[in-house]
Amino acid sequence: MGTDIVALCKEMIAIPSVSHDEENLAGFVANHLSQFSSIGISRIGNNVIAKSSMNRPNRVIIAGHLDTVPADDNLVPRLEDGRIYGLGSADMKSGLAVMLGLAEIAGSFSFDTTFIFYACEEVATSFSGLLEIERVNPDVFRGDVAVLMEPSSSRIEAGCQGTMRVEIIIRGQRAHTARPWVGVNAIHRAAGIISRLAEVDLGTSMIDSLQFRESLQVVKVHGGVANNVVPDLATIVLNYRFAPNKTVEEAFEFVKSLVENLLDQDGDEVVLEEGVLGALPNLSDPFISRLREASSAVPNAKLGWTDVAFFVARGIPATNFGPGDPLLAHTKNEFVEVSEIELAFTTMRNVLSL
Ligand SMILES: [Zn+2]
To answer: Is the pLDDT of residue 85 over 60?
Structure first.
């Protein structure tokens, strides 16, 4: 391998690329890729696509986002004790460095490869670079399988959970606080619903022997009129992370069933504000199962939502597999182990060469 992927990772950390501001990093990536003869490069906005065209029977898409969350005094990369520290080291400039290393030797693989370096993953989905690419050239997503090089400690983190935001609107009746019995306190009613939600036992769904542990959290509560008024309105916002074998409708029905008998059917409402489907693990896909055999660690279920769901929704089996501990993503002390970068690279190279 000619490219020093560890040096590349450090170099890319030093190029700021907060969401919407990926132009310089996209330029760096495109310029680096232009040295390699076995791939063709195209650019759509701040997204860079590199493809080999060797008429191999199967095509593997390898994708990673260029953007990071805002810096927290951690923009300057530092190599220390076998770790690279700095913003985006784990999420996911080490993954991007592995992609550049693989692109360099794409001509030697037994698969055709499409490398997608995309913008705006860390912000609202409507800005996603993947959607921008799809609007301009949906053919980019022609492939048999996709690997998202999101941080997963160089092991398979299969599938991903679905997520939804639900608002529960609780109504009451205003009254003077000195004579509350002529009104109905909506906040007091909300309290019962909040404790029901806080105590719910969600359990774990086993899918392909992976544990998808669900979670449901109340994330916002609003209410109140004045210091001497019994409030007539309270709202509760919750976030439910559900197993990928449930549809959005099924997950929403479940949330409704939790609170149904506490609601006043005339005035209260349960509103689905946003819901996105998860992605099944796809461990039986031939490429993903080879990746699984080649990586020494046992696969985990992905707890969280990732762009794996973007690919799976388009009929392309996909998995997360990349260097970096997902728990360090978005933290001030973010780092990646150099050994994990090397492990992710060699594992991918070996599987692509099979
Ligand atoms: Zn990420």
So the answer is: yes
The residue type of 243 is: A
For residue 124, what are its two tokens?
Answer: 């609202």
Higher pLDDT, 201 or 144: 144
| DSSP codes, 224-244 | ---TTEE-SEEEEEEEEEE-T
DSSP secondary structure of 120-184? --SS-GGG-HHHHHHHH-GGGG--SEEEE---STTS-EESB-EEEEEEEEEE-B-EETTSGGGSB
**Whether the Cβ atoms of residue 63 and residue 49 lie closer than 8 Å to each other:** no
d(CA 277, CA 272): 13
Give 215-234 pLDDT, tens digit per residue: 999 999 999 999 999 999 99
Residue reference for tokens 């899918």: 207
Buried b (16+ CB within 10 A) or exposed e, 185-208: bbbebbeebbeebeebeeeebebe
User: What confidence category does residue 248 fall into, taking pLDDT thresholds of 50, 70 and 90?
Assistant: very high
Mean pLDDT of 177-196: 97
Task: Report the separation in Å between the CA atom of 321 and the middle of ligand 1, taken as the mean of its atom positions.
Answer: 11
Could you tell me the distance, in angstroms and rounded to a whole number, from the CA of residue 92 to the centre of ligand 1? 6
**What domains lie within the chain, and their CATH numbers?**
5-159+279-353 (3.40.630.10), 167-276 (3.30.70.360)
Distance from residue 88's CA to the centre of ligand 1 (Å) = 8
Which residues on adjacent β-strands are paired with residue 309? none
